[in-house]
Design a protein that fits this description.
The structure is a single chain. The chain is an alpha+beta fold. Helix content is about 45%, strand content about 35%. A four-stranded antiparallel sheet has the order 1-4-3-2.
């Protein structure tokens, strides 16, 4: 009986995990076509470069803003045909998670929700600029997060070893 009571008490103390999308919004959108009409009159073999990053800000208790910034640059050799940058953001209510779990949710689940909106904004912008549509491939945010955690651990370990060597 005592073990059952302890288990029930531990379960009652553990806060319920909650995750809710409050709002998705376009925070920033930028489009440039530096060549103007020349971009449409030349035969190009475009090279696509994509950059991605996320930012997280705590707005208030259990409310977080996650912003996903995608920058796509399409160039023909050294000449940029166009550059489009989208910052897609969302407000997420998250509670009941420990620090590591919270970091994982904010850096994987939230960007996974935002990415289709950012991809659509880029595609719509390019279509309105009369460039061919650009369907960005899916991104595995879980793998990116795992890689970032591993790199941080390796860096911390390397710094710890360096400190140990200088102390001797």
């Amino acid at each position: 009986m005592t073990e059952e009571n302890q288990a029930a008490a531990a379960q009652e103390q553990k806060p319920e995990v909650q995750f809710a999308l409050q709002r998705v919004y376009l925070k920033d959108l930028s489009f440039e076509s530096p060549q103007g009409v020349k971009a449409f009159t030349t035969q190009a073999k475009p090279k696509v470069n994509q950059e991605l990053n996320t930012k997280t800000a705590k707005i208030e208790d259990n409310l977080y803003e996650v912003a996903l910034r995608l920058t796509v640059t399409v160039a023909d050799g050294e000449e940029t045909l166009y550059l489009v940058e989208v910052e897609q953001a969302g407000l997420f209510a998250v509670s009941g998670l420990e620090d590591q779990q919270l970091a994982q949710v904010l850096n994987t689940a939230c960007p996974n929700i935002l990415f289709p909106y950012a991809r659509e904004a880029i595609d719509n912008t390019l279509t309105k600029a009369t460039f061919p549509p650009l369907l960005l491939p899916p991104i595995n945010f879980d793998a990116l997060f795992a890689s970032a955690v591993q790199q941080a651990q390796q860096k911390a370990q390397a710094e710890g070893e360096a400190e140990t060597e200088t102390a001797h």
